[in-house]
Amino acid sequence: METIEEDDVFTGVPSTYDDLFDVFLFLVVLYVMGDVICQRGFKIVPSLIGFIATGVALGPEGWDLVPDPLSTWVLLGNLGLVLLIAQAGVDMDLEILKKIGVRGFIIAIVGSILPISIGMLLSWAVLDQPRSTVIAMGCCFGPTSAGIAINVLGKCQVLESPLGQLIVAAAIVDDILALLVLSQLQALTAETLAVQDVVVPIVSAFLWLFLGGAIALIAAPKVIDRILAGLRSPRMGRILRVFRPAKEGQRDEDDDDKHRSETETICLVGLLGLLICLLPATHWSQASYLLGAFLAGLAFCQQDGLTVRFQSHFQPLIDWLMRLFFAATIGFQVPLSLFADKNVIAKGFLLSLALLGKVAVGPLLTPVFSYNSNSSREESTNPQRFKGKHLRDCAVVGFSMAGEAEFAFVLAVFGVTEGVIPPNLYASIVFAILLSSIVSPLLLRAVLAFYPYKEDSEDTVTEELPDRVVYESHGISSKLNEDNVVEA
């Protein structure tokens, strides 16, 4: 008989009281810093700044309070981003998306090229770096953080407006471009350069974006409707009644409500199933898994009631996972010990000038919307460029695109790991990215606090494009309290 060594015996997963207390303390500080001090105390300061500060202070470069493995916290934060992107897809308004999709794509392209070019110019002309370092450093300033933009816009009632969905579409495409940039850097730093390593990620990303998007918007709703119609058939109804017998005296309205609830639940399960399929499919095909999350939500954006059902089930979970995203996925990446060097800070401020390319897409590409009020105010207004609400919209687009986080850190870490970016310049790049993660949402929240979008939530929005299409701006689906904080 084979003997089992003592080391091979499974004895469970150990945990200690110290780890338990440290986790509890970390979560309490995270909540107090973000939701109490920043959001309730300072009002205008976005809560994510408190989350990032907590991650930096209590993370591995600070007091090192958070127990290992730290990668678990980072993964939980990334999971929150996946669910947030899927929710953004569900919240998409089809009629608005048809008209702003191209504009969002253009904003993403220009919003990547401009900061990358400025970053490369600064690295070459001012910092005098070699060509490979110049390319890698410039690419770090291309991505836009969809998590930061969605977090602030959602709490300020902008997310489901035409302007908000324009920004979401641009941020999603920007993340795709960031993955393309990363794949090209990996190919260029490889010992042997293969053609497929350069071509496959590009082709895959654009196929998923355009072909996958068309399927999600055109074919998927028809398939979903056929499935739901089959479930409503008398035969299926008799089968379901075996497991759910009707009560005596039950009203028809109760049946309708229950039927609606079951339909929403089926759609929610279908969304999660599609999410499970598309995440690995997009990743294995060398595209962005965040694109898979967005397409999964987009396939169900035309199903009535799913937005509210999704929020009622997942909003509290998403809120906490996004706290971990800002604290761990961003905060834990900051090399705090290197910030004691004045040269690192000075070069960080210099490199942050690359973000002016992000801000510039606001005044350059933001369309002019005219707001036709249904209230007792003026029946129609004719807005001018760079005045009034258009000036606010330009600032909102520019500051939303300027926030960098997850993929910018990924590119910077890849550069320093491969020896393309020196450690001191890596610290400067991280400082510039961290600065954008703090200043961008702060400025965005300030603009929307002094010139709130809430006043336009019941207005009809007309974008001054050649086809003169009128957009209906719907209010955000979730309930908002007096501080514009989304509640489930």
Key features?
17 helices, 3-stranded antiparallel sheet, 67% helix, two-stranded antiparallel ribbon, 488 residues, globular
- Rounded radius of gyration (Å): 24 Å
Q: Please estimate the helix content.
A: 55-70%
SSE string, helices as H and strands as E: HHHHHHHHHHHHHHEHHHEEEE
Number of strands: 5
- Structural class assignment: mainly alpha
Q: What profile does the largest beta sheet have?
A: 3 strands, antiparallel
Task: Tally the helices.
Answer: 17
- The outline comes out as globular
Low-pLDDT sequence parts: 373-381, 457-488
N-to-C CA distance: 58 Å
List the helices and strands and how they pair.
Blueprint: H1 17-41, H2 47-58, H3 70-90, H4 94-126, H5 131-139, H6 146-155, H7 162-189, H8 195-231, H9 234-243, H10 252-284, H11 289-298, H12 306-330, H13 342-351, H14 356-365, E1 369-372, H15 388-402, H16 406-417, H17 423-450, E2 460-463, E3 470-472, E4 479-480, E5 486-487
Antiparallel strand pairs: 1-2, 2-3, 4-5
Helix pairs in contact: 1-2, 2-12, 3-11, 3-12, 4-5, 4-7, 4-14, 5-16, 6-7, 6-17, 7-8, 7-15, 7-16, 8-10, 8-11, 10-11, 13-17, 14-15, 15-17, 16-17
